[in-house]
What we know:
Elements: H1 2-19, E1 61-70, E2 73-78, E3 84-88, E4 92-96, E5 120-125, H2 129-132, E6 134-143, E7 147-158, E8 164-173, E9 188-190, E10 196-198, H3 206-209, E11 221-225, E12 247-250, E13 255-260, E14 267-271, E15 278-283, E16 320-322, E17 328-333, E18 346-350, E19 355-362, E20 365-372, E21 382-387, E22 393-397, E23 402-409
Bound molecules: calcium ion.
Calcium ion is lined by residues 279, 289-291, 295, 318.
Amino acid sequence: MACAAAALAVLATVYMRYMRRPPLDARTAASADPSPPNATNQHPAFAGQTDAPLRRSNVAFDIVTIARGLEEPWGLTFLPDGRMLVTEKPGRLRIIGRDGVLYPSVVGLPRIAVTSQGGLLDVALDPAFESNHRIYWSYAEPQPPGTNNTAVARGTLVEGAPPRLEQVVVLYHQSPALLSNAHFGGRLVFARDGTLFITQGERAITEGRMQAQRLDSLLGKIVRINADGSVPHDNPFVDRDDARPEIWSLGHRNVEAATLNPATGELWEVEHGTRGGDEINISRKGKDYGWPTIAYGIEYAGGPITGGIQVKDGMEQPVYYWDPVIAPSGMTFYTGSLFPAWKNNLFIGGLSSQALVRLTIDGERVVDEERLLTDMRPRERIRDVVQGPEGALYLLTDNVDGRVLKLVPKR
Length: 411
Ligand SMILES: [Ca+2]
């Protein structure tokens, strides 16, 4: 009997693991991206985890160029008066007028390591900006000898000619610093309780990758700090001697897109995976998102990733993954009223995909997908997506002559 039961259990396992999965290469012309997958022999852990059906929202919009001449703009946020703060990766921070005029660069930034993917990254306003004029920014911080790390600083923005930062304090240094020019992460998101989430990467090199699972390293982590740089008392690992107390969640590869879900207040993020493995996660307290033990996709050089598996107990499955990848950067849930058909949709910037990705979300599931801006000529890499104060969508294009674009209903 025991033998038969064991055999049945094995059969049930085989059935669950293989037979119930969608067939290989099930992609059809009804996919948002019908091109072949990067990883040919991987399967979603649940129905709808990848390749959601294409649904055209049929929203007619105009693309208005608000500003141009920005060098690799990376992060955008709105000031209370409707002007914008935009970072340029080579190390400039600019105020941009509502009419698109570029102010002189803000002076007073600390030294920045400008490398392949590193430089000045995101910018965010203090929740009490109207009274304290504080801003926060993330950047690649140079360290001797030739190493660098993601860092976050804050300062008081003082208007003038030129505008400047005063009372600058570096609040956070990712450690260890490594000799790498990639995977800095860098998105800044204030939670509703006033704490600050900082998304990060694992610096791309093997030494960093292997620390994404280690609690004594800040590589491959999303961290949560107070606005003064101190550690919130309710972070998940504050009571452990062997863990960095700043850690909020672990096992991340490189997170360049993050936003609060307005329905829940939770932190949603989209991270760069390997080839065939970009993924959406809900970053929750103390949870392990698997990298590099579990991951969808294959190495950019070919072959399986470190762990060679996609599922493991104790590790979170992504809400959704893309194969082929989109190369995500910047995201927002749309809550405005200019585009009623897009209400509550999730928008994600695409770098290599040169598109704006639109997803319909139902709770924690992706229902359908659409690629916008694919008819732009030339197509452009989209670095950031932000909803403006009047409900328009604003985008940054990732170029040496980068632009601020505004999507408005077609006139
Ligand atoms: Ca993962």
